[in-house]
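Co-fold these.
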Amino acid sequence: MATTSPLQPVPPRHSRLTHTQQERFLAWALIAPAFLVVFALIFAPIVRAFWMSLHVIDLKRPALGQPFVGAGNYLDILQDATFWASVGRTAYFMVVSISLEVVLGVAVALLLNQHFKGRGLLRALVLIPWALPITIDAIMWKWIYNPTYGALNSLLYQMGVITSYRTWLSDPVSAMHMVIIADVWKTTPLVILLTLAALQTIPPALYEAARVDGANAWRSFWSVTLPLLRPVLTIILVIRTMDAFKVFDIIYIMTSGGPSDGTKVIAYYTYLEAFSFLRQGRGAALAWLMTLFIGMMAFLYIRLVNRETEY
Amino acid sequence: MRVTVRIISVLLILAILAACAAPVAAPTGAPAAGGEKTVLRALFMQQAGYQQSDIEAITQEFETQNPDVDIQLDFVAYEALHDKIITSAASGAGGYDVVLMDCIWPAEFASAEFILDVTDRISEDMKADIWPGALEAVQWQGRLYGMPWLNDVLYLYYNRAMLEQAGFTEPPKTWSELREMGMAAKDQGLVEYPFIEYFQQEEGLTIAFAYYLFAFGGSFFDDEGKPTFNSPEGLAALNFMVSGLQDGLINPASLESTYEEVRRTFSQGGSLFSVNWAYQLNLANDPAESQIAGDAIVTLMPGEQETSATINGGMGLAIMRASQNPDKAWEYIQYLSSKDVQKRYAQNALPIWKSLFDDPALLEAQPAVAQEQDFVNVSKQQYAFLRNRPIVPYYSETSEIIAREVQAALTGAKTPEQALADAEGEVLKVREQYMQ
Amino acid sequence: MRRLLPQVGLYAAALLVAAIILAPPIWLFISSISSSAELLSVPVHWIPEAPTFERYVQVITATGGESAANFRRSLLNSLAVALLVTTICITVGALAAYSFARMSFAGHGNLIYVLLLSYTLPPIMLVIPLFRVMGDLGLTNTIQGLVIIYASLIMPFAIWILRSYFQTIPADLEDAAMIDGCTRLQALARVILPISAPGIVATALFCFLASWEEFLIALIFTSSPAAKTIPVAIAEFTGRHAIDYGMMATGGVIAALPPIAIALVFQRYLISGLSSGAVKG
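Predicted complex below.
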């Protein structure tokens, strides 16, 4: 099954060579509507955004016109410490949340792959955070973190973990971690689902063989399970990297980028530039830089998966 | 096959049903069905001041008197208002005709040519009767860009019972007095944190810094537009905020609180003092919302070097430049801000008209609490100490920088000196960029 | 004893996971049925003394311009948007996915990466130039406008999952059908689609959830009650001048119910759909 790489074109069937022309037409006709839907609306804006990124477009100063500055916006941004600070915060968010999601996700998926009473129920429960809209997730956690009426303070206080109420979102470092918790709670289930699905395709015979060879559970996890999970983990890593790099909603609702910029990630920074400060040329350049980075990640992913299938 | 087809057809049917159940908005700017009506689109916020139902009722009245006009109202959160106006302006025709504009935006919107200059539409008589602060809220470089409409400033509120318990009969006149009284109440164990503030990194924090700065005798910019807040006065103001947090005078929850959290904490008896807009008065004295009903007293903002300093929170109504019907839009605005309407709907917002403040009908329209506390009179006194946030086209950036740097000082990430110096440097940079 | 200990550990772990998953949403629900006074009590009242479903009733029965009525309206808007987007993505996407899975020609196969590139775009990039286009087309403030944007953003992902699923289906099945005289499209309709139900359902779920929860684009492009979607309506409960913790919690619970219900109903398709398709890349 795994021998057909999804990324390598499936060769045309010999039996239908006579219909090649027809087939070719059909092949293109079938993808045409999808391309129409995807690019009719997206293509023009992308090009337009690129054009904007090459000009100074400051809505506050219409008298300025929209002078062409070439790579000026990009160079400006790349020399701007605020930009690099927001890249750093985004990277931190990305690395910490994804690491937690992968470790916890795989652990829970392994748990859900065991036989025990109530497994079906637990598998269903896992879907709840996954299906919960991200804005609700943000609002829910913000309410839990509320410094005065929040459940977290009350719980920790009643358990004796803290001796006085804390303000979770008022310190840059703490706020970032609180946002990460909200994100991990919501997104780990996706990792669990995908990992669990992959675990179910591993033939039990492999574990039998490992056991015959005298491997304990830990050894067989490292030598059998993990290698077979590599493809799915790669996918998870890349999907999550793309999403985490674009993180916006949860920040907008929970912290507005504060406190003292502690959670001002790159998407929020771009939003501020384009919509609060009205520097749309610079905003477009920022958006393009984000796209370039994410595109690079996607490219890396394709390379990784291709290598994956070669061994 | 069956399963798939069934799934897809169920999806389709549901989609069609849902699409029918949620009728689609009429395309913007299109004439309404059944006549040659002029369609005006107006954008408001659904928060403090006039309630959504008030605005709907006033609009209905206007439509009844002007059967040829159809007004489509949109209400968004304050946080989304600025973005909506920009989106509308940038998409040209088909956007809004009338927008509600916060007092910090006229410079930005006017220099961006989003909104119409309405200086010539407002007569001298009208100007003479409008509170100067309210007029300033729609003004830039000597021109008027909107009609003043919502009149609001910040007040100091105190818990009378708690203050008396702490041994004081009169509310504080200065920030130092407030500190003394607060610490006395704290030492007596009456309250853990005597003062709750809006210190979340947002516009509200810039406002908070502004009233301290003005009270301590400082200013944001000089006449040439150079930043002046990095001064001994500015430092004294910021030090007051920082030490307030350190000593436990100010509730640390302030760092993530907005006006609503301030109101809740104060209403629950969780603080001796709070600073808030007019709307807190009714709610903090409403037994359904508050545990200190009857004891939440409104008074003048404290001073220090100055007698008192409050911040203008007024909002005006502006006409978008792209509007096809600016005259009709102006008529509508005139109706919304007319003395008659402002008098009748005065229970949620005080009028912009000075003459109405001597009108007994205005006093009668006030809720019982406001009458008891002579709120109209307190407001009149407070307006004398009204200050504005900087009126510059790059205000959004300025405010963002100030809120960020002030919070860096509040959270201890920077010393107050460093924070102010950094803020000054960055504001200078923004200003230079704009001047280029 | 050697067998018992791991068993105990297993159940302890399962309980812990269940608690972590359930505690926050349960707290949201408890908040939604607590009285206003209890919401603001310190310390927290874990179990409300006088639970009230008043806010739910309010959302269901409110009329006119009340915010509860507008909230109900936004629920319908979201439903319409999510269902339309899902339908478009599945029908159009399945055709394209089939083509990519089975009929590659020179250059054709690489096009899927071109499609996937659109997934790399940050929404903010589209929003900046798009509002002009949307304004010209008269699509701002309409649910059609949102449907078009979402469909174009979500489609590539749908095609990708579906293609992976189709590739796991042995080609012999279609070949047999075609030898029996079916055309390719007939083979697709009669052979491939029926056995792809799990993959299609899993994909549909992804599409539904993605359009249900999208926030930034809806925030910028909708402001009238006729077009606002749930995430925008919810965010309005948390404005700086108007936080209503109770309605916020109630709105949150209501907005979370449809996607959670749908996910639970189609649960068994989800895992099987994923395990044969997407996880193989």
